[in-house]
Model the fold of this input.
Amino acid sequence: MFGLGKKRSKFGKFMDRHGIIQEELSKASGVNRNSISRAAKEDDQQPSMKNASKIIKALKRSGYDVDYDDFWSM
Done:
């Protein structure tokens, strides 16, 4: 159901595989939903380090073993 017909980044594909909803991640991380949506669309859209850090921390609190390098290159 998630991400049908959309271009997705590594981050977006991860969210789709695990059924993570952008709105829920936004609330858990404190990052604007539009920023999460942009990061999930295409690989060339990287969030700021501040937002990426918040996203990674929220995912780790939810039990996922992820790191910045799993989704975005420095």
